[in-house]
Amino acid sequence: MSVLVISLVVWLVLVFLSVTGGIERNWLSKLTALHAPLRISPTDKYYSSYFYQIDSVASASNYTLKTIGEKASALQSDPYSQTSDMEPPFYFPKPERFKDGELIDPVKSAIGILEKLDLSFQDYEIGGALLRLGLQKPDEPGTSYLSQMSYLLSLTDKNPRLHDLTAPPTVDDLNHLLRSDPTLIEHIDVQKSAGESGNFKLIEAAAKMTYSEPPLNPPPWAYFVGDRCFLPTFGSEVGILLPKLYRDSGAKIGDRGTISYSAPSAGSTQEQRIFVRVAGFYDPGILPVGNRCLIVPQEVTRGIYAASQTFSPDGTPTNGIFIWTEDPAALKSKIQGEFESAGISSYWKISTYKEFEFSKDLLQQFQSDRTLFLLIAAIILIVACCNIISLLVLLVNDKKKEIAILQSMGASFASIAAIFGLCGTIMGLASCLIGSAAAIFTLQHLDILVSFLSALQGHAAFHPAFFGSSLPNQLSYEALQFVLIATPLLSLAAGLIPALKASRIRPSSTLRAE
Questions:
Q1: How confident is the model at residue 115 (pLDDT cuts 50, 70, 90)?
Q2: What angle do CA 410, 413, 419 make, to 5 degrees?
Q3: Measured at the alpha carbon of residue 410, what is the angle toward residues 409 and 415, in degrees to the nearest 5?
Q4: Which of 496, 481, 504, 485 lies closest to 424 in space, CA to CA?
Q5: Per-residue CA distances from 38 to 26, 152, 270, 325, 327 (Å)
Q6: How many C-beta atoms lie closer than 10 Å to residue 225's C-beta?
Q7: Distances (CA, A) of 67 to 53, 125, 166, 241, 319
Q8: What's the pLDDT at 441?
Q9: Out of 34, 57, 155, 418, which residue is the most buried by the measure of CB atoms under 10 Å away?
Q10: Cα separation, 321 vs 350, whole angstroms
Q11: Calpha distance 226→395 (Å, rounded)
């Protein structure tokens, strides 16, 4: 009975910790899918420096502040001309220079260091605008419009996770596009269709999204050449990626709309419009602004940045550099050392995903939950192993005569105690093996268990928006290590109490009583 109880507890602990650990890894993966795991962002010193502010008084910069990407591609670090530009005001920051007199260019220096380290990186920008999207529903006449204030994230086409985030066009999307351009059939793998050429309709089809080289006639949806993502252009219209929630609202690839933002002029503020067309949908993960964040070409965010700077609601820097790496903590220390050697460390803040504004609270909660789950698992194991005490105490009481005979034949107190202590350890090891085997079997057939729970409740036991289409079913080696160490030790400790009781039996009094 004790082995059965402990095996049941081991099974429950392994399944629970494996599933919760897998869910945590999935959430962490979603947190760093759209954003890179390592980010470099400008500090207050950067924004208040001469290097950044000089663009506002230089005619060569069109008197507008520049983004990191624009600074990196600029021909000159200092666009100011003493002959053609007005003298800066007295409160203007003084230029920071190296010992040799050269102006400190923190952007080009940082880019040079990242290139020297052979890293995969890309600058990004975040802007804000009003999206007004026209929706054409087949069961409703005319066009309805969807309006929402949105955040715009520049396309990070080097993001290795972007391909997994981008949803392929559905059959409804393809039929919607084919009505206006039948030549798109060359980008579609048709499995089943209906009707004649004049009234052609797809039943089953898959759109081609990955190409080995740039297509001569690009499709009207987001596509990939190798690992890089490209958004199509439609004359004066630009392609954008919407969160997949818009698809649930009836939006389709090919729908048209505008994004509007305010730009100050000499005497007033004017509304500027950019015509856009939906080029696809992506999974925003669990970002706080995920369902309000559009992915747009970098030229769009740069234009908005030049007109008016946007502030992120969660404190995320609106301009910076993403770096994709497998070990962000180690790389952070390495880059920090390089920046300090180059004399530009005060201009940049290097953050890992554990320090991001939108994720650090969630990660701290993950840590607290993990500690709580381990504590609960330890308490349950302790309670289960207490069954060993009851069993062995009864065994000692039942075997008093045999124990007394062994002692009379010369058995030491230590050897008697070792017998019962070993019994407890063997029971713990046997329970570990049985419980672990049952946990592995359960995880391999976890979908059946989830379906059973969903049928009992009458709805999905685990909402796909939070847990994905299926629960993770990989055995957690950390949980297995915890169980394999804790259970035998607790079993040994539980066996010590009966062992001490057995070692204190007095042969003379016990045999006289028998």
A1: very high
A2: 100
A3: 115
A4: 496
A5: 18, 20, 37, 7, 9
A6: 15
A7: 11, 8, 26, 22, 7
A8: 86
A9: 155
A10: 10
A11: 69
Structure-model confidence comparison of residues 429 and 390, the more confident one: 429
Collapsed DSSP state (helix, strand, coil) of residue 158: coil
Phi, psi (rounded to 5 degrees) for 442:
-65, -45
Q: Give tens-digit pLDDT for 217-256.
A: 889 999 999 888 999 888 889 999 998 888 888 888 988 9
Q: Which two tokens stand for residue 425?
A: 């350890």
Using one digit for the tens of pLDDT, what is the confidence trace for 271-330? 888 999 999 999 887 665 667 888 999 999 888 887 776 666 667 788 999 999 988 999
User: Which residues in 319-358 are b (16+ Cβ under 10 Å) and which e?
Assistant: bbbbbbbeebeebbeebeebbeeeebbbbbbbbbbeebeb
Output the six-digit token pair for 372. 């709580």
Please say if the pLDDT value at position 108 is more than 90.
Answer: yes
Q: What confidence score (pLDDT) does residue 507 get? A: 57
Q: Which two tokens stand for residue 365?
A: 């909660």
CA–CA dist 92, 71 (Å, integer): 19
Query: Between vectors from CA 447 to CA 446 and to CA 451, what angle results, nearest 5°?
Result: 120
* Bigger pLDDT: 24 vs 207: 207
DSSP 1-28: -HHHHHHHHHHHHHHHHHHHHHHHHHHH
Q: Are strands 228-230 and 269-282 parallel, antiparallel or unpaired?
A: unpaired
* Residues 6+ positions from 223 with CB-CB distance below 8 Å: 208, 209, 210, 211, 215, 229, 230, 232
pTM of the model: 0.76
Cα distances (angstroms) measured from residue 241 to each of 66, 222, 224, 225, 292 = 25, 8, 14, 17, 11
What does DSSP say about strands 223-225 and 210-211: parallel, antiparallel, or unpaired?
parallel
Q: How far apart are CA 220 and CA 174, in angstroms?
A: 10
pLDDT confidence tier of residue 40, bands split at 50, 70 and 90: very high
DSSP for residue 289: T
Structure tokens, 18: 């494996």
Spell out the residues 6+ positions from residue 280 whose beta carbon is closer than 8 angstroms to its own. 166, 167, 169, 221, 222, 239, 241, 242, 253
Cα separation, 11 vs 501, whole angstroms: 31
Residues in the chain: 514
Q: How far apart are CA 143 and CA 127, in angstroms?
A: 28
